[in-house]
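Fill-in record for Cytochrome b-c1 complex subunit 8.
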Amino acid sequence: MRPSIIRASEMPGPKRAWGSWWGDPIIKQKGIIQYTLAPNQTKAGPHWIRSYIFNFYRRVSAEAVYFVIPFGLGFGIYTWAKRRDAYQNSKAGHIASGAAHH
């Protein structure tokens, strides 16, 4: 014989006027406002490519100074250092510095 399981239909504790338990039908409450979008506002597709392109350009161009200048400065230093290193490790660089070339 299987023991029967007692199932409580409500949450334990005091009764709440505002809440319901899982599975209970939703009770209409006062003071709750629902907002909806107009049908033409829900159609995001017609101009989304044009909107994204222009909005991207507007945002990136406003911030470009903050990443173009540091990138350009870093790239300039990097290319200068690569050329200088290549020259210093070349035969002409060794002769110019007075060091013997191996």
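KEY FINDING: The chain has a mean pLDDT of 79.
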